[in-house]
């Protein structure tokens, strides 16, 4: 790809998001959700916090983006229209440098929490969640030594 070629269609930056400079604490974050409005809201918030955000709308697209973009963090829905976030999490965790993963879902169950812990997710957000909860989870996940998955409050 030359400098003049447009980026692939799946390479969606968050509007208002900006690429972090070498001196910022911003990270590359992949947000995976088949609900475009939620993915966009998450990308906007995290973009305003200085992170470079990318969106994928399904499992296969997310796995391709993980391999090509090598994000610093993956935030994925548990249930996707073409698969599931557990497969995305496993794929992210198999990298040479395992990527932290935050799972989010509207369908809370003890089995989902156990599955999130089993794939090495660093957090688990129950939808609907506040942007403050997302911000807290992202900050904890990109900390030098993120804690293992916790059960959601509520």
Q: Judging from the principal axes of the Cα atoms, what is the shape?
A: globular
* Widest beta sheet: strand line-up: 2-1-3-6-7
What is the CATH architecture assignment? Answer: 3-Layer(aba) Sandwich
Gyration radius over CA:
15 Å
- Provide mean pLDDT, rounded: 83
Point out poorly predicted stretches: 1-24
Range of strand content: 15-25%
- Per the CATH scheme, the topology name is Rossmann fold
Q: What is the terminal separation in angstroms?
A: 48 Å
Number of helices: 5
Estimated helix fraction = 25-40%
Please give the largest β-sheet.
Answer: 5 strands, parallel
Number of strands: 7
Number of domains: 1
Compressed to H and E, one letter per element, the order equals: EHEHEEEHEHEH
What's the name of the CATH homologous superfamily?
Answer: Response regulator
The chain-level structural class is: alpha/beta
Per CATH, the class reads Alpha Beta
Write the layout of secondary structure elements.
Blueprint lengths: L27 E5 L3 H13 L3 E5 L2 H11 L3 E5 L1 E2 L2 E2 H9 L7 E5 L4 H9 L4 E4 L4 H11 L13
Helix pairs in contact: 2-3
What do these coordinates show?
The protein is of the alpha/beta class and 154 residues long. It has a single domain, classed as 3-Layer(aba) Sandwich (Rossmann fold). It is built from five helices and seven strands. It has helices at residues 36-48, 59-69, 85-93, 110-118, 131-141, and strands spanning 28-32, 52-56, 73-77, 79-80, 83-84, 101-105, 123-126. The strands form two sheets. The chain has a five-stranded parallel beta sheet with strand order 2-1-3-6-7, with helices on both faces. A two-stranded antiparallel sheet has the order 4-5. Helix 1 links the parallel strand 1 and strand 2 (52-56). Helix 2 (59-69) runs parallel beside helix 3 (85-93). The longest helix has 13 residues, at 36-48. The N and C termini lie far apart (48 Å).
């Amino acid at each position: 790809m030359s400098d003049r070629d447009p980026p692939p269609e799946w390479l969606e930056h968050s509007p208002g998001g900006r690429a972090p400079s070498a001196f910022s604490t911003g990270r590359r974050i992949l947000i995976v959700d088949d609900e475009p409005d939620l993915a966009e809201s998450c990308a906007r918030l995290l973009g305003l916090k200085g992170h470079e955000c990318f969106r994928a709308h399904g499992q296969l697209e997310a796995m391709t983006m993980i391999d090509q973009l090598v994000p610093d963090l993956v935030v994925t829905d548990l249930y996707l229209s073409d698969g599931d976030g557990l497969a995305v999490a496993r794929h992210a965790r198999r990298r040479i440098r395992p990527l932290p993963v935050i799972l989010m879902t509207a369908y809370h169950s003890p089995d989902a929490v156990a599955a999130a812990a089993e794939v090495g997710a660093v957090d688990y957000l129950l939808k609907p969640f506040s942007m403050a909860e997302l911000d807290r989870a992202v900050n904890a996940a990109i900390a030098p030594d993120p804690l293992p998955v916790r059960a959601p409050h509520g």
